[in-house]
Design goal:
The chain is α/β, with parallel strands linked by helices and about 325 residues long. The protein has 2 domains: about 110 residues, Rossmann fold; about 180 residues, NAD(P)-binding Rossmann-like Domain (Rossmann fold), CATH 3.40.50. The chain contains 9 helices and 12 strands. The strands form 2 sheets. A 7-stranded parallel sheet has the order 8-7-6-9-10-11-12, with helices on both faces. A 5-stranded parallel sheet has the order 2-1-3-4-5, covered by helices on one side.
């Protein structure tokens, strides 16, 4: 039997959900606050929540919620203890295109020495430079989910060798991607290392002092996942002694990063404030995962992007 849904509670404004609401005229969409008291009379079967939750999430889910869908992929900031036996799904894969483009831009910037090579005055030499390239380079992917696969597809188009490690023994769906036997092997071979793992207790500081001692000298380190995956103190040491030539980071720990933090000032750190997911239509893609799951839920079908609470993603 299809699930009976009459109300969707949403952290997002109802106006943002208007196109979806038009296609589900029998469902009432209600914006709910991220903090403060929840009216006792407020009820809803579905909750569209921010990925990091909200201070009153525990109280909110007790108002009839049966299924929670998060606006985003990583759920490391979501209060899992509040979920209980409810279904929790996320917008897995929705940001793969913009995040993969950001990653390729970061790798190209590193190899082509940008923005350092922009000429603002007559250079010492004209028509000469020792630039790198992506062709023939090896990119190592920590994780092989939708984002990493999108990176792999684009890297292969540039003639790069792509190697990856993943939690399971499942082979790559992209034949050209080689699965490395272990992290140490991947670290030793990568010219560019892209961190694209979920942040869980098991993966916290997976790139720490021990790992950074095993990297190929001159590595370009890219993090588009979560700041907690890299030990930033160990990273600073590796940048200062040259093991890491550049760190291109879209994430940090903590976020927002406070003023005066060394990541802002280090000459070999290129930092953006967690925006690699952004491009025209990116919110539409994120909300499309919710709309697809809403249809599935109403039809009594299996949802996509369901979070494995044991694994943490």
């Amino acid at each position: 039997m299809p699930n009976a849904v009459t109300r969707v509670l949403s952290h997002l404004p109802v106006a943002t959900l208007a196109p979806i609401a038009e296609r589900f005229p029998d469902i009432e969409f209600i914006q709910v606050p991220t903090q403060g008291e929840i009216p006792e009379s407020l009820r809803g079967e579905v909750l569209l929540a921010f990925t990091w939750g909200s201070p009153n999430i525990r109280e909110l889910v007790e108002h009839g919620v049966e299924w929670i869908h998060t606006v985003g992929t990583g759920v490391d900031g979501f209060p899992m203890d509040a979920v209980g036996d409810r279904v929790l799904s996320c917008a897995r894969g929705a940001s793969a295109i913009p995040m993969s483009e950001w990653t390729l831009a970061a790798m190209l910037n590193f190899e082509k020495q940008l923005p350092q090579r922009w000429a603002k005055r007559p250079p010492e030499q004209w028509n000469f430079a020792k630039l790198g390239g992506l062709y023939g380079r090896t990119v190592g992917l920590l994780g092989l989910g939708a984002v990493a696969e999108a990176i792999a597809t684009r890297a292969i188009a540039f003639g790069m060798q792509v190697r990856a490690i993943r939690r399971t023994s499942k082979p790559s769906s992209i034949p050209e991607v080689e699965i490395a036997p272990n992290l140490d092997d991947l670290l030793a071979s990568a010219d560019h290392l892209v961190v694209a793992l979920a942040s869980t207790p098991a993966t916290r500081h997976i790139i720490g002092r021990d790992a950074l001692m095993k990297v190929k000298p001159g590595l370009h380190l890219v993090n588009i996942a979560r700041g907690a995956l890299i030990d930033q103190d160990a990273l600073r040491e590796a940048l200062d002694d040259g093991r890491i030539a550049r760190a291109s980071l879209d994430v940090a720990e903590p976020e927002p990063l406070p003023a005066g933090h060394w990541l802002y000032q280090h000459p070999q750190v290129f930092l953006t404030p967690h925006l690699s997911w952004s491009m025209p239509g990116s919110l539409d893609w994120i909300l499309a995962t919710f709309e697809d799951n809403l249809r599935r839920y109403l039809a009594g079908e299996a949802l996509t992007g369901v979070v494995d609470r044991g694994a943490g993603y």
